[in-house]
Amino acid sequence: MQEHKTCDGMIRRDLLKVGALSLGGLTLPHYLALAGNGKIASGRADRAIFIELPGGPSHLDTFDLKPNAPSEYRGAFNPIKTNVPGIEISEHLPRLSKVADKFCILRGVSHTLAAHRLGREYVNTGTKPIPALEYPSYGAVVSKERPVEPEIPNVVAVPRASQGPGFLGIRYAALETNSTPTPNTAFSVRGISLPEEIGVHEVNRRQQLLQKLDRRFADLQNSDQLLEGLDQFSSQAHSMITSSRARQAFDISQEPESFAQQFGDESFGQSCLLALRLVESGVRLVSVQLGGWDTHQDNFSKLKNTNLPKLDVGLSGLLSGLDQRGLLESTAVFVTGEFGRTPKINQRSAEGGRDHYPRCMFMLMAGGGIRGGQVIGESDETASGPKHEAITPDDVAASFYHNLGIDPSTEFNSSTGRPITLVRDGSIIQQLFS
C-alpha cells in the first residue's frame, strides 16, 4: 500500500499508536476490550462512510471550476455537464458526472487553518482544535452513540484512522485494517481472518482454555473489576473471530464480478467496495482514505493522471453500489479534504501547482436524508472565498451528525467531568435535507 506524505512530512498514521499500542497497533482483542455501549438514537441514516482526501484537493480543478476566470486562476481543466441540469464538474470526473443526482456539492466551505495536521483535525471532528482538549472523530462518536452486536466492530478504518477518539477515550477507537484490499482476493484483517492452519474448532478450544485460566485467576483476585472486564472483552473478541458474518463482511472476493467491476482495480475503489460490504453487514461507520492531494507542483498532471481517475471510479462506484443494494437511504456519505488549494497557480514547476488554501474548499455529502442533485453555497469569481455567507466545517459536522440522528449539541463529559458540547459552533444546514 502506498503511503502519501504531505509537504510538512506527515504520514497518515493513527495517533493512538503510542505506548502499549505501539507494537502492532490496536489489535482486535484490545479494541473490543476498550469498546463500550452508549445510547441509541434514531436518524435518517443508521450507518456512515467517511471518505478523507488527505493533502487537500484543489476545489477549482474538481467541483468548483471557474472557466471564465483569468488563466492564472482557472487552470487547465474544463467543466462538463452532469446528469443534473445546471451542475458542472471537472472533465476528469466523467463517472461522477453521471451520478450527480445522488450527491450534494458544498461550495464556499471556509476556515482558517492552513496546516495539514490542524486542518485535518478540524474536518475530522467538526470543531476547531484547541491545545487543551482533543475532540473525538466522527467514528468515535458514532461508536459511543450507536453500538452494534459484539461480533461486528462499531467502526472500521481503511487502512488507518486519521483522528483518534479524543476525550471520549480509547475504548471508542476504530478497528484499523492496516492495509487495503485487492480485486478478487479474500481480504485478511489481523485478528479477524483465521490462518489456514487454524480453524474455528481450534479457536474454540483455545478460548475454553483461556476461560479456565481466567476463572482460576479470578479466584485469587475476585475483587478486581479489570479482570472481569478482560474476560468479557475476550469473549467478544472470540465472538467476532468465530463469526462467519464478520469474516464474510471483509471478504470482497465474494462479490459478483458484475457488481464489483464498477469499483475498478485501484486500492481506493476496492476500499470503497469493502466499505459498502461492512456497512451492509452492520458496521456503523467506515472511514476510507485517498491521499496524494498535496499538489504544490505538477498539480494538473497529478490530478489528471492519478487522483481524479481514482476518485471518479471509486466514489461513483460507491454511490451507485449503495443505491443498487438499497443502502443509500440508510447510509450517510461524507467526502472532504482538510482544505482547498490556492486559486492562483504558482510557478514551482513547469505546469505550476497550487498551495494550501483553507479560505475556500468543497465538501460532498450524500445518503440518508441528504437531497442529492444540488449545490449549496457559492464561491466568488476566482474561487478565492465564499461569495456570500461561508459554510464552516462545524456546520457540515452538525449536519452529518443530524443525518445520523445524533444531536450535535449533545454534551459529553471529559475524564475530569468537564461538560463538552459535541459540535461547539456549528449549525445544521437545513437546505441539505429540503
Summarize the structure in words.
The chain has 434 residues and is an alpha/beta fold. It has one domain (19-193, 250-433): Alkaline Phosphatase, subunit A (3-Layer(aba) Sandwich). 30% of the residues lie in helices and 13% in strands. It contains twelve helices and 14 strands. It has helices spanning 28-33, 71-74, 94-97, 116-125, 138-145, 200-220, 225-241, 244-249, 257-260, 267-281, 299-324, 393-403, and strands spanning 47-52, 79-81, 88-90, 103-109, 155-158, 175-176, 285-289, 331-336, 340-341, 356-357, 361-366, 374-376, 411-413, 419-421. The protein has an eight-stranded mixed β-sheet with strand order 6-5-7-1-8-11-4-12, with helices on both faces. A two-stranded antiparallel sheet has the order 2-3. The chain has a two-stranded antiparallel ribbon with strand order 9-10. Helix 6 (200-220) runs antiparallel to helix 7 and helix 10 (267-281) packs parallel to helix 11 (299-324). The longest helix is centred in the C-terminal third of the chain and has 26 residues, at 299-324. It is globular, with a radius of gyration of 22 Å. The protein starts with 27 loop residues before the first helix and ends in a 13-residue tail after the last strand.
- What average pLDDT do the residues reach? 85
- What proportion strand? 5-15%
CATH class: Alpha Beta
Structural class: alpha/beta
Q: State the CATH topology.
A: Alkaline Phosphatase, subunit A
Shape: globular
**What is the N-to-C order of secondary-structure elements (H for helix, E for strand)?**
HEHEEHEHHEEHHHHHEHEEEEEHEE
Instruction: State the low-pLDDT regions, or none.
Output: 12-42, 194-208, 220-233
How do the strands line up in the largest sheet? 6-5-7-1-8-11-4-12
**Helical coverage, percent range:** 25-40%
- Write down the Rg: 22 Å
Largest β-sheet summary: 8 strands, mixed
Q: Treating each run of at least 4 consecutive H or I residues as one helix, how many helices? A: 12
